[in-house]
Amino acid sequence: MSTKTEIANAALKAMGEKRIDSLDQETKPARSLKAVYNVARRAALREHPWNFGSTETTLTKSATTSGTQWAYEHPVPSDFIRLVDVIGLGGRYKLKRVRGVGRVIACDVTPITIEYIADVTVEADFDPSFVAMFALKLAGMTATDITGSGALADSIESRYERQLRLARGVDAMENGQDEIEDGGGWNAARQ
């Protein structure tokens, strides 16, 4: 289980900087990390359909539509970060922004069930591989401000990309495998 301060300190360690006691501390590193923490967290959550952030919900239609080709518009939940799937629609939908309403999923069916990545704000819920990747994302976003070194920021960005690949791989290994239907092909030819 991680905390904001532990994640921030992992970012500072990647920069070779001293630890902080809190993101509310009146130091340049704490102020810099705090300023981008939520933006970085949301961006990191959008990087992959993380198992720990995945949730399903059923959406009902909006009272009005914006007059598009679709019959219905379904406002997304307030904690919506990334759409993973509209279950059962096979790609016949569109995620869009409607002025005055926000983001909606437009389609010709209602209600709909979606799988999406939620804005996970409780650090204890983060996967450990995600924490390591997120700390490097924070470090990359703040390294130039904190250390004055653009070269360090570039180096951390490379480490971040490697950790992102690793975290995605670990996360993907925890997914079950969908049953594959064999339409006769190879197995039928063997018989």
Please give a structural write-up.
With 191 residues, the protein is an alpha+beta fold. The protein folds into 2 domains: 4-49 and 127-173, no CATH class; 51-118, no CATH class. The protein has 5 helices and 6 strands. The protein has a 3-stranded antiparallel β-sheet with strand order 1-6-3. Helix 1 crosses helix 3 and helix 3 runs antiparallel to helix 4 (150-173). The longest helix has 24 residues, at 150-173.
Tertiary shape = elongated
Runs with pLDDT <50, length 5+? none
**First and last CA, distance:** 52 Å
Helix segment tally: 5
Beta fraction of the residues? Answer: 15-25%
Indicate the mean pLDDT.
91
The largest β sheet comes out as: 3 strands, antiparallel
Strand order of the largest sheet: 1-6-3
> How many distinct folded domains?
2
The helix content is 40-55%
Looking at this protein, list some descriptive labels.
2 domains; alpha+beta; 6 strands; three-stranded antiparallel β-sheet; 191 residues; elongated; 5 helices
